[in-house]
Every structure is written in C-alpha cells, then in structure tokens.
Amino acid sequence: ELEAPYARLMCYCFLKFKTKKKVFGLMDTVDEAVCLLEEIYQKYRDYEMALDWGEFVLNTEQFKQDEDFEDYLQDIYLILIYVHAAAKNEGKAQDYLIKLMDYKENLNLVPFENIVDELLKVKSYPFALSCLESYCDLARSKENLEWVYLKKGLCCMGQQNFKDASEWFSKSYGLKHWSFPFLHLIKAKTHMA
Asked: Which of 20, 37, 61, 125 qualifies as a cystine partner to 155, CB 3.0-4.6 A?
C-alpha cells in the first residue's frame, strides 16, 4: 500500500487521464478525497480538475454516506468558490458561497477574510468586493477596518479604478500607519499621474 502523498500523486495522474474509477478505488473516505482536492487546488493550481473532482466528491453517495462528510463541506465549498471565481464563473461561485453561508448558519463562522484573499489571488475583484460588503456587516469587521480598506483598495486597483483605490489605501494607512497600504497608495497615485 502506498503512503498517502504518493497515493494522492497517483490519483492526480489518474484524474489527468480521466480515469475517475481508478481514483474512486483508491480514495474510499471523504477525508482522502478532500485531501486530494486540496492538493489539486493548492499544490497544482489545476482549477479545472479541482472543480471536476470537488463536484464529484459533493455528489458521490459513497462520500455523502461517510460519517465525516458534513465536517468537510466547508473545505469543499471554499475550493469550489475559488475555482469557479478563477474560471470567471462568478454566478456559480456565488451559489457555493450561499451554500456555505447556509451550511454555517452563523455568518460569523464564514471565513470571509480567507475568501477575499483567495478571490484577489484569482483576480475576481467584483466578487471580492461583494464578499467584503458581506464581511462589513459582521461585528468582527469593525476590529479590522484597516484590512477591509486595504482589500477594497486592491479590488479597485485591480479594476483600474485608481482614484477610489487611492482613497481606500489612504483610509487604511490613516488607521494604522502600516507600509502596505502606503506602498499601494503610491502605486495608485503613480497610475493617476
């Protein structure tokens, strides 16, 4: 029997060759299937395969019947949000965000900070702004306004809206006087000149 990292690598190769049945034979628990999903997304950045495998895991009875399935729903939903956003399919990403919010019931448990950071990585700026607005409705956001303003600035900057970006960076810098928004403020002002 192969050790887990080698088994996941073999499964990744099987998925590349479109042989899910072989993968299904090696992955008999939801834990193993989600570890593979996370590796496909994080290590290989293979968004198309992560999307395909994530939806397969969500819809496969063997995994649904696993006693740990509910524990992994957040992980699956998060990756599906990210890969749909990366594929510029924001409608589907939004659908999975709604499923995650319904699953969590308490919005304070939704990791909006991580979601926004990942959405910025895949340049899904409008969706990241939408998530920031949802985050701003939570009490915990008031303790983190410099981060909120910085991320709003990055979203505006990514959309070539340098005027609004510089305003958000100024607000962020004004709260904490940290270098990151200041450097981005200079960058935004340079683009405006």
From this structure: 125
Considering Cα of 41, then 36, then 8, then 22, what sign does the dihedral take? Answer: negative
Quick one: 84 exposed, middle or buried, by C-beta within 10 A (0-12, 13-18, 19+)? Answer: buried
- Please give the structure tokens belonging to residue 179: 């270098």
Rounded CA separation 9/27 (Å) = 12
* Residue 73, number of CB atoms within 10 A of its CB: 16
pLDDT one-digit tens code per residue, 123-169? 999 999 999 999 999 999 999 999 999 999 999 999 999 999 999 99
User: Measured between alpha carbons, how far is 165 from 157 in angstroms, rounded to an integer?
Assistant: 5
What are 67's two structure tokens? 């006693």
Task: Look at residues 180, 144, 184 and name the one whose alpha carbon lies nearest to residue 167.
Answer: 184
